[in-house]
Amino acid sequence: SALLLFISIMTMFMSGVVAIFEYDLKKIIALSTLSQLGMMMFSISLGLYELAFFHLLTHALFKALLFLCAGVLIHGAGNTQDIRSFGGLSLNFPLVTVCMNLANLSLCGVPFLAGFYSKDLIVELACQYSWGIFVLLMMFICLSLTVLYSVRLTYLSFVGSYGGGASISVCESDYSLVGPVVILSFTSLVSGPILSWLNFPAPVLIFLPAFLKWGALFFVGVSLLVMLSLQGLTYSYKWGVVSKFSGLMWFLPW
What region holds the NADH:quinone oxidoreductase/Mrp antiporter transmembrane domain (predicted)? Predict the structure, then answer.
């Protein structure tokens, strides 16, 4: 279990770092899936099997929503996947923007969305285990990385200045595209509590010191602010070596 713990934490860390330097919309979402798989394996390595399954279910719902929203954006932006050619898409896709941000916030573990119920439970139960400070610190860092690449994706796609991509077609009038997105965004709102009531017969009792109890929320909040203030850095060349190394996914495909 110690080996699985180490591999899962390094998987979470690697995919989080690589996603921060990635510009391909689908790759960012795929890397975040890899990160969450690391989270599930991390949960299994602690012996929390039911919790890993619960995270699998909630994550499946909002990750499906993320991929569908990405599909609508790619279709609308003239079949480009490069988020540098996006920017200001919230004006063209108001509904998809809302749904995608909902899925992103759920992925980050923002309170009372679907992802929060499983993610926060894994984090708090992991804090109860005596694995040592390294494991806890890496877990919180990986939690922060999730927020970092999610905020970056949202900023570059919806908030930042227009990147000069292809002309945007009107996708939101096509109900076969937007219908599933709306249904899934509803599930990513309510599936967390519903699945937790179905999965766990009794509430989980967790005793933690205050600083650990607030740890997850603190890291999510701080990394959100950090990424919003660092938006200008995404285009700088100071990170050349790091971004090349990350872009090649730490040479693992090789």
Answer: 3-140
